[in-house]
Amino acid sequence: MEFDQMETFLAVLTYGGFHRAAEALHISQPAVTGRIQALEDSLGAKLFVRARSNLSLSPAGKALRPHAEQLLRTVALARQAVREIQPSAGSALRIAASLSVCTYFLPDVMKDFQKSNPKVMVSLRSGSSLQVLKMVLDGEADLGFARSLNHPEVETTTLRDDPLILVGHPAHPAAQKRRVRLDEVEALPLIFYDMGSSDWTLSQGLFRRAGLLPTVVLEVETIEAAKRMVERKLGLSFLPQIAVTHELRRRKLVAIEIVDAESLHRNLDVVSPRHRPLSRDAQAFLGLLQTAAAAPTAMVSQLAKRRTARRRK
C-alpha cells in the first residue's frame, strides 16, 4: 500500500472515473488502473463496483475511504509544516474567482493583504463558478470564490448574501419613486446581460413566475457594460449588489425596491480543498475576506433608511 495508490483511489472517487482521475493527476489512464489494481491486490479486496456506466465504492472501498482521506491530510500537514519553516524570499497564494468577484470584491481585499504580506506572490485567475470549482479540485487554486459552490470534496463557507437588485439612474422616474410593483417594472426599459447565465435566468424568472414579459431594450455581455448603460439613462437593470456598491454610495445609481416580488438572493461562497489544509497565507486571506464581507453595504443602508422613514410617517 503506497501513498500514490491512496491518492489515486481518492481521485477516482472524486472525479467519478479512471479517465477523469488520470487527467486530474496528469498521468495516463493505464497508470491509474495499475495503481488501483496494485492497491486492491495488497488489500485482497475490490474497491469499486461497476454498474453500467456508474462507478461506486464496494464495502471495502467505503471502509478504506476515511483512512485514505486522513492519510492525505496528514501528509499535506507534514509538507506544510516543513515548508513554512524553510527560509524563503517569499511564498505564493493561488486564488480562483468569478469575474464579478475579481472585479468588484477582491481589489480592496488584495490591497489590504499585500500591505500586510508584501513577500507573498498572489496569482489570481477568473472563470465561471464551475471553472472556479474545478481549479480548486484540480489543485490549481488554494481558494476559490464564486456563487453557490458545493461539492463533497471541498469545504464551503458562505461569506454573505449577494442579491441581484434593480437599479436605475437617479433621474429615472422609477428611481425617484424608489418603490414600484413588478407589473410597473415590466413596462419599463430593461437591460439584461450575459444571456443564459445564472444571473440572467434568475432575473428573467422573476417575471416568468408572475406571468409577465419584461421590456428588454438592450442585452449586453458583461455586468460592467450593463452598469454603464444604466448610468447613461438607457434603462434599468438587475445587477449584483457587489457590482454597484460604490455607485449607490455616491448616488450615481439608485436601488429600486420591488414591493410585491421576492428578493433575488444568491450566496457569495469561498471553497477550499477538503483534503489539503489551508496555508497560513490562505488563512490570513480568508480572514480579510470575512471581515470585508461583514461590512455593511450601501444597499443595506439605503433600505434601513427607507424603513425608518416609513415608520415615522
Describe it for me?
The protein is of the alpha/beta class and 313 residues long. The protein has three domains: 3-85, Orthogonal Bundle (Arc Repressor Mutant, subunit A); 91-160 and 267-300, Periplasmic binding protein-like II (D-Maltodextrin-Binding Protein, domain 2), CATH 3.40.190; 164-265, Periplasmic binding protein-like II (D-Maltodextrin-Binding Protein, domain 2), CATH 3.40.190.10. The protein is built from 14 helices and 13 strands. A six-stranded mixed beta sheet has the order 8-12-7-11-9-10. Strands 4-3-5-13-6 form a five-stranded mixed beta sheet, with helices on both faces. A hairpin with a 2-residue loop joins strand 1 and strand 2 (54-57). Helix 1 (3-15) crosses helix 2 (18-25), helix 1 (3-15) crosses helix 4 and helix 2 crosses helix 3 (29-43). The longest helix is centred in the N-terminal third of the chain and has 27 residues, at 59-85. The chain starts with a helix and ends with a helix. Residues 298-305 have low confidence and may be disordered.
